[in-house]
Amino acid sequence: MSIRIWHQSFTVLSDLGAYDDALRAHFRKVARPGTEIHLHGMLPGTYRNHYPGDDIKYSALQYLHGLQFMAAGINAQHQGFDAYAISTLPEPALKETRSLLDIPVVGYGESAMLTACMLGRTFGVLVFINELAEQITENAVRHGLAGRLTGVRHVGFQFADVLAAFTDPTALIERFRSAARELIAQGAEVIIPGEAPLNVLLASHGINEVDGVPVLDSLGAWVKQAEAMVDLRRANGTSTCNRGYFSAQPAPDRVREVFGFYGLAPFLQGGTQP
């Protein structure tokens, strides 16, 4: 039986041709037959340019952009998708989106951290938005995995360098290996390569270890976790918690009413149910 996954990026994918193409190719490689991954990005015009990092390094702006992730999750469920997958390391509005939906909601960073814990005792994360180090460290605490995290370090290059490297990755891969070795020296037994564009670049060129330490394909882990959550739901009805402050689902009509009050109704597609 087929599985339809809504992929939600923090980038405007239509602005990033090389990355978009590589992402689609990678999903074709890691997803099992019958799994359809439908790529979605932020709305055109979300950012001043094609680079989201100028905004998402600020907590308040990332919070505001997270509203698109909640709306996209509602739209995914409304369109009959089997799972909603947040495909960005910071995982904006992950717990809030889970509290709005009945379908499985999978986070890129959470999936990577959970998988890393099955591959080694500790893990480290490399990022190219330096300001995200604080957030990713806090996310590890929220996921209950702070004790397994050795550190979050800047990888030594930027988003634009990653996009350029899709045509010639040699120099950037060596810089990545150098940064990974610094985390390994701190005790990391698994390397999470941070933001999705870097993950795709490395996976596309077969980079899966540095000095015997695994380099995790975080997007691959994210796909497999989404598939597994759908399988569990179909097999025995496994679903997320629906009680308590963080998990109880508000009434769907009230959710749409509140979105409308704040002028966000255009983000949502028709119907009365999330």
TrEMBL record:
GO terms for molecular function: amino-acid racemase activity. Gene3D superfamilies: 3.40.50.12500. Coiled coil: none annotated. It comes from the Bacteria. InterPro entries: Asp/Glu/hydantoin_racemase, Hydantoin_racemase-like, Iso_Racemase_Enz_sf. Belongs to the HyuE racemase family. PANTHER family: PROTEIN DCG1. This is Racemase.
